[in-house]
Amino acid sequence: MFASYWFLIFSVIFFSSYWFCPIPYLRKFTILIASMTFHFHFAGPAGVLPIIFLGINTYFAGLSRNKKIQTFSILLCVGILIFYKYTVFIFSQIVSYFSIAWSQAALQQIQSTLLPAAPPLAISFFIFEFIHYLADLQKGKTPIQSPIDFILFSIFWPSVVSGPIKRFDDFLVNLSIGYKKINLVDIQLGLMRITMGLIKKLFIADNLTGYIDFWYPKFTYLTIEQRWCFVAAVSMRILFDFSGYSDIAIGFARLMGITLPENFSWPYIARNLQTFWRRWHISLSSWIRDYIYIPLGGNQHGTFRKIFNGICAFSLCGLWHGASGHFIVWGLYHGLGLVITTSLPKRIQITHPVLTIITYPFSWLITFVFVSIGWLYFFYPVSDANTMIILLLKN
Questions:
Q1: How is residue 201 annotated by DSSP?
Q2: What is the total count of domains within the chain?
Q3: Chain centroid to CA 114: how far?
Q4: N or C: which end of the chain has fewer CB within 10 A?
Q5: Quick one: 131 and 191 in the same domain?
Q6: pLDDT in tens, 169-193
Q7: 326 is an active site residue
Q8: Where residue 306 falls among pLDDT bands split at 50, 70, 90?
Q9: Nearest Cα to 78, choosing from 121, 131, 122?
Q10: Active-site choice (132, 321, 334, 352)
Q11: Of 181, 212, 229, which marks where a domain is finished?
Q12: What phi and psi values does residue 258 have, to the nearest 5 degrees?
């Protein structure tokens, strides 16, 4: 989207209007109009209408200050997410086990009458932000009074497609500061961040994608060294692709003087899985922790509950990325890995500073290999990933 001719024209018109607007409050309306235009252009009417409905419902549920209404709205958000994103998966992968003919007939009827050809654009990001908003209100935070502020929180155009997932109170503070004054330092930092993101995406990730697509069908015939190089390329490709998009989104927001949360912080230097997930897709992993893992009980109710909660949280994290079995397997893979590593007896965990430095290369390598193998489940069917993993261990 950021590489289209339409977006080039859009950004030139928007930033010219924004930077040269002499009235600060009008800049806020410029962001509002631009966000609505951006979302409608890329999502279309079928993608916009469900978000409008959810947004209106969430806004008024927040103003009601009624926890029952807010809980109902959270469940409504979850239900709509399941309907748009997972109906096909549920009928084709789960219901079909009981009756293939009935599941196919029901799915065909739903697809022809209710489901659009594709889920509404970025519906997962919208739902997560709406749920976070309502859940935080239930904890005592003040609802957004201004409908303009709520719309801007909902469809702020730099982050509407691939995040970062925003927290409403932080975003509104940054918004209120950003539009009031044009800061050349912010513009410089924004341009630098966009440039860095474009280099990551276009020059590194896209070239790695070409390499991966070329060698994937030939994986069986590669030497073991070449297979491990392939796996490393897969790992680097997703890092530079996704962090590149995040950099571009953060950079465009910074051009307006608005700071979005960081999404990546050198995740591949982590020496354990806990640190990796504090550095990888930070806005998502912290959301999973705060709104799924901790509400389930976290690690406060014994080992069994800790294992159950961790596996549930990461299964949902995997499923959030896509309605497919291999995403669930990837989530389970990381959930089990985290449960095992965090459940090690204290005498096995290395905490002494000197020993930590000595063992860092080994713990880093184990973590990187574990994460890299996991990406095979993320990108490929489970059977293909299993075959590739076996081939990594033999000539």
A1: I
A2: 2
A3: 26
A4: C
A5: no
A6: 999 999 999 999 899 999 999 999 9
A7: no
A8: confident
A9: 131
A10: 321
A11: 181
A12: -110, 130
